Amino acid sequence: MKIVFLIDDDPDDREIFEESLLSLDVPLKFEEAANGKEAVEKLSSSDFQKPDLIFLDINMPIMDGWQFLKHIKKDENFNDIPVVIYSTSSSQEDKALAVKHQASEFITKPYSISSLRQELKKTIFTFLSAE
C-alpha cells in the first residue's frame, strides 16, 4: 500500500485533503504532520514507514516548507521521495523556488473539493502508478 504524507499546519486543510484523498478509492495510507519539524521527527522515527509521496505546504510555523524541502533533499534516505508543493500561493517566485529546491510539482490549493479530488487523482496517478 502506498503512503501519502501531508505536511500542513491548517487542521481543516489536512482534514479536507484526507477526505478527498481517501474518496479516490485508491488503496493508500494517509499520514500527516503540522509543520516541517514534526515531519522530520516522524521520518526519523523507526516506526514510521517511508512515504511514497509528500504534499508540502509552504507557510508553516516552526519549520516552513522551504526549510523542510532543503532538509529532505539533503538526506539520502529520503531525497528520492517526490515532493509536491501544496500551497495557497500561486506566485511565480514560489514556483521558481520549488523548482530550485527540487520539488516534483507545484499545486495551488483548489477552492472546491471536486477540484481538489481531480488534482489529487492526477497527481497520485502521475507519481504512484508508475511504481
Automatic annotation (TrEMBL):
It holds the Pfam family Response_reg. InterPro entries: CheY-like_superfamily (IPR011006), Sig_transdc_resp-reg_receiver (IPR001789), TCS_response_regulator (IPR052893). Transmembrane segments: none annotated. The keyword Phosphoprotein applies. Residues 3-124 form the Response regulatory domain. The keyword Phosphoprotein applies. It comes from the Bacteria. SMART domains: REC. The modification 4-aspartylphosphate is found at D57. Signal peptide: none annotated. Keywords: Phosphoprotein. One of its GO terms (biological process) is phosphorelay signal transduction system. PANTHER family: RESPONSE REGULATOR RCP1, RESPONSE REGULATOR RCP1-RELATED. This is Response regulator. The lineage of its organism: Bacteria, Pseudomonadati, Bacteroidota, Flavobacteriia, Flavobacteriales.
